[in-house]
Amino acid sequence: MARKKKSDKTLNVPTAPFRAGDEATFESWPWKPGDLGRPDPKKCSADDTIKHAHGLVRVLGDDNKASGDWNPELNADELRQGLEHMVRLRIFDDRMMKMQRTGKLSFYMRSFGEECVAIAQTMALETQDWIFPTYRQPGAQFVRGRDMVSMICHCLSNAEDNVKGRQMPVHYTYKEGRFISVSSPVGTQFSQAVGVAMASQYKGLDEVTITWIGDGATAEGDYHYALTFASVYNAPVILNVVNNQWAISTHANFARGGNEFASRGLPYGLASIRVDGNDFLALYAVTQWARERAASGAGATHIEVLTYRAGAHSSSDDPSRYRPGDEYAQWPGGDPIDRLRDHLIAIGEWSGGQQTELEKRIDAEVMDAYKEAVKFGDLANGPHQEVETIFTEVYEEMPWHLKEQRDEAVGE
C-alpha cells in the first residue's frame, strides 16, 4: 500500500515580536480619544460594543490633554489623589524589591508600569464593591485605606501578619477593604468573582465585583467558565484581562489566538471594551461605566486593559533572557505616572517641583513604615507566627485528625 505524501503544512508556533538582542520598534497607535462614543451603559448590548472591543478607548491624547466622550471630567483633587496613589505604589515596590535583594524579604512582585490599573479602577468603584485581584493589583489597598505597615508585616510574615504566615509575600488579603486573598494558582479568582457577584445579586445588594486576570491565564478554563456564568446569569461583575504582553516568559501571542483579547467576550454576549491601561482617565471612565452597567442589572462587562509589564515577572525572573532591555521604553502607551503627571502640569494643576516633593515625602513614608513593621519581627530573626496557627481558622470546629497533628506539632 502506497504511503501518503507528507503534508507541507507545519504546526504554527507563535513567538514574541522581539527577543533579547533585538531592537524593539513598536508602531505608533492609530487610536485617538475622539474615536469611540460612550453608549448608555444601562441599554448597551454586546453588539453595541463591537467597535469598542476592536478599537481602543483613550482620553489622554498625545498633547497630554483630556478629550472625547469618555472623559470622566475628574477634578484636579481627584487627579492628584490618583497620582499620589500611583507614586506611592511605585516607590513602595522599589523599596520592597531592594529589601528582597538584600535578603530582608523572601520574594516580591512589582506592579512597575501597571500602577494605573488597580488604582484608577478601584477609585471608580464604590466602597462596598468586592475586589478579586491578582498579585499586580496591590494598589487597590492604598485606595481602600490599608496601612502600609500592615502590608509590610505581611511581606515579612512576622507576628503582625494578618494572614498569619499562610501566604507568600505580596499575596495580600484585606478583609476591611473587601480585597480578597491573592491566589498563586492564577485564574481561579475569575470564576470566584462571578460567584460572589451572583450571590450579591441573589441577595438584592448594591454590590459589584471586579476581578483581573493576566493575558496568559486566559488560556485556562477558569477564564471561560467565568465568562459563561457571567453571561448566563447576568452577573454584576467587571471582568478585566490585563494584557501586559508577557505571562512570565511567554508572550501574549501564545494565549491570544487573534487580534484582541477584548473581542473574546462578544460571542459570550458580554459588552466588551479595550482600554488604554496607562491612561488614568480612560481606565477610570470605562470602569465607572461598567460599574453603572452592572449595578443597573444590565450585566457584566469584559475589558481588555492594554498595558505593558515594565519589570520582571517577579524577583525570581530575569526578563533580559527573553526580551529586549529597552522594550518598555518603546511602548506606545508610555508610562502611566508620567502621563497623569504631564496632564496635571498641562492644565496648570501640578509642577515638576511638586512632583519631586511628593516622591521625597512618600519615600520617607515607606522607610518609616518599614522601620515600624520590623519591630514586630523580620525574616531572619522573627518572631514568626505560632506553629499552632497552621491548623486554625479553617474549620469552625477542628476535626480530630487535625487536633492530633496539632498536638504532635506543638509537643503536647
Gyration radius, to the nearest Å? 23 Å
Structural class: alpha/beta
Can you summarize the main beta sheet? 5 strands, parallel
Q: What's the mean pLDDT score?
A: 95
- Helix segment count? 12
- Please give the order of strands in the largest beta sheet: 1-2-3-7-6
Low-confidence stretches: none
Gross morphology is globular
Strand tally: 7
Helix content: 25-40%
N/C terminus separation: 76 Å
- Which series of helices and strands comes N to C? HHHEHHHEHEEEHEHEHHH
Strand percentage, roughly? 5-15%
Walkthrough of the structure:
There is one protein chain. With 412 residues, the protein is an alpha/beta fold. Helix content is 35%, strand content 8%. It contains twelve helices and seven strands. It has helices at 50-54, 76-101, 115-123, 139-143, 148-156, 188-203, 221-232, 253-256, 280-295, 336-346, 352-373, 400-410, and strands at residues 130-132, 209-214, 237-243, 246-247, 250-251, 271-276, 301-306. The strands form two sheets. Strands 1-2-3-7-6 form a five-stranded parallel sheet, sandwiched between helices. It has a two-stranded antiparallel ribbon with strand order 4-5. The longest helix is centred in the first third of the chain and has 26 residues, at 76-101. The N and C termini lie far apart (76 Å).
Describe the secondary structure blueprint for this structure.
Blueprint: H1 50-54, H2 76-101, H3 115-123, E1 130-132, H4 139-143, H5 148-156, H6 188-203, E2 209-214, H7 221-232, E3 237-243, E4 246-247, E5 250-251, H8 253-256, E6 271-276, H9 280-295, E7 301-306, H10 336-346, H11 352-373, H12 400-410
Parallel strand pairs: 1-2, 2-3, 3-7, 6-7
Antiparallel strand pairs: 4-5
Helix pairs in contact: 2-3, 2-10, 2-11, 3-9, 5-11, 6-7
